[in-house]
Amino acid sequence: MIILDPSTPLLLAAVVVALQVIIVTSYRSATNCSHTCGGGGHTIQYPFGFSPGCPIQLNCTSNGSTTIGNFSVLNITEETVTITVKTDCYRQFGLVEGLYGPNFAPTDRNAILLKNCTKATSCPIPPIKTNTSFESLCTGKTKEKMGCYMEMAQNTPAKFVNLKRLKDLKCSYLLSGILAAASTNGDSLSLDIQRMELGWWLNGECKCHKHAQCTKVLAPNGTRGYRCRCKEGFIGDGFTNGTGCHKDPSTCNPLRYLSGHGHCGGTTRIIFLVGALVAGAAFMIGLGFVTCFFRRRHHRKRFLYTTKSRLTEVTSDCTIPIYLYKKIEKATDYFSDKHRLGNGAYGTVYAGKLQPGEWVAIKRIRHGNTDSIEQMINEIKLLSSVSHPNLVRLLGCSMEQGEQILVYEFMPNGTLCEHLLRERGDGLPWPVRLNIATETARAIAHLHSQDPPIYHRDVKSNNILLDYDFTSKVADFGLSRLGISGITHISTAPRGTPGYLDPQYHQDFHLSDKSDVYSFGVVLIEIISSLKVVDFNRHQHEVNLVSFATDRIARGLVDEIIDPSLEPHTDPWTLGSIHKVAELAFRCLAYHRDARPSMAEVAAELEQMRLSKWSPHSDEINNCRTSSEMESYDSSCSSTISEKPLSGSMKNREQQHRNDKVPAANQPIPSEICG
């Protein structure tokens, strides 16, 4: 038996403490790097430190806080350093250079807020996010315009913000910063206000501990760098010249669990065994589902990012209002079935009130449909650039929380197609039909008169909407294309609706204004006949309405295609004008585009027919003829139509839509909005 002196334990404790001091002292001597800030300050891990011998030197203030340049350090991770960039309306732009060091630089997840920039900035974060958070802080202090720069908006593979491009903006002030981070499922984008993220690295080739992983980094200046990270089950800084990696004492070894020698106890061993069996079974069953899930998630992330970038680009160039998503939700009672008006190929339409007493149609784009997003962007561009009484008005949009929403003026009387097919009401009298045709022709002629011209590319009765007074509104610009000034056509793949598509465009891929003329000719035949454009219930030689109608018109048998409800033989003017419209439609439907009239000429002829009903002298009609270019109509020729009275059911429906109730679901917003 060995008897120890009472002072022996104290001696052993002193030896242990001395050894620890020697190890720490030798480590600090080897690295010549201080990792502690102040007497009672916090300690940071290699390669960071507070003395010149540290690979990445940070600043230690008198109060014990850590800074980089003039900015406080919030957090240091294995890849990044997060700093605070408080809002300062007069912070000089040159201070941004303090964020670039030999071993760190701002990452591409930063949105840098600037002021008084000479060149235009680019940023995928919606302006409403930055404006509400920062602009009000500088109101009244300076009139310089605020800008936002983000490297992701430059479509480059860079992982860091390019300092040269940032300087090229020639800005006066560095206002603040926003750190943008996508959620784990990619459904939303979180924004950390007044924060910036710096990526860090050590220069040269990898010098990591044997139990560490090396991540290679390409520095902003093109040189090679690296970072080290301990593998799972190990802790430490991971660097050869640092503390390296050592076993994590809190980690339990699964093999020791199974063998019964693990220090975590028998209960944990049993739990692990049962869990392993369950996990193995789940893995075998769900392997295919997991693969499918990750593919879909990756596609969704790319889709959401592309959509946000495209919509931000579009809405920054136009003046349509951008509504808060919460306001849209409130207007539709959180998209309740009570407000739902209909479903379409690209989304669902709801009735709502964004202003007291004013109904609007709200189209909620269905998620994951790339074509619908492209058509939505196209519609925003075109409808925000033109204005005409007979073009549907786009009142705004919303693009928050992964949602894409368009807001239109409310069209209570549905589409022309619904009335012609008696899906809505008891049919339209001929003067009303002629007026709708005239107004529609004016609207399309207006599109063609723009510079460059606009080709609608999907003119059809389903895209002609009717308001309270049955005034027509041309809608659905998702397929529309801009022409080229001075060029008669553009080359593009045929798009449109079967039965309305220009056959020569379908053959040679040449889209022109005459393609819209052909489609409008089909609409004129619908107005005369009230027949479907394609109907397989008709005789096989009459399935296609255009072929059937042009055959009858060419043979002088127009009466065979006239809607009987029009009772044309009771009124000479009605019968004569129907025949004239049929002849005009026949010319619009010519196979060769050069044989078709222009849309301006079509509108002028329809206007003359319309006015002949109420003008007692033909001389007055001739005085109302417009030029072939249809630049404008003389005010004396645009008198309000006094067509024969509408039926009682029409008046009742009009009164119903003017009241304050939610529009009935069986009286939907036109199919243009529905799809």
From TrEMBL:
> Which Pfam families does the annotation name?
GUB_WAK_bind, Pkinase
Q: Which residues bind ATP?
A: 363
- What are the UniProt keywords, alphabetically? ATP-binding, Glycoprotein, Kinase, Membrane, Nucleotide-binding, Serine/threonine-protein kinase, Signal, Transferase, Transmembrane, Transmembrane helix
**Keyword presence, Cell division:** no
> Ranges of Low complexity compositional bias?
627-639
Q: Which domain of life is it from?
A: Eukaryota
* Protein kinase domain span: 335-611
Main location (coarse class): membrane
One GO molecular-function entry: protein serine/threonine kinase activity
Cross-referenced PANTHER family:
LEAF RUST 10 DISEASE-RESISTANCE LOCUS RECEPTOR-LIKE PROTEIN KINASE-LIKE 1.4 (PTHR46008), PROTEIN KINASE DOMAIN-CONTAINING PROTEIN (PTHR46008:SF62)
Q: Provide the protein name.
A: Protein kinase domain-containing protein
What organism does the record attribute this protein to? Trapa incisa
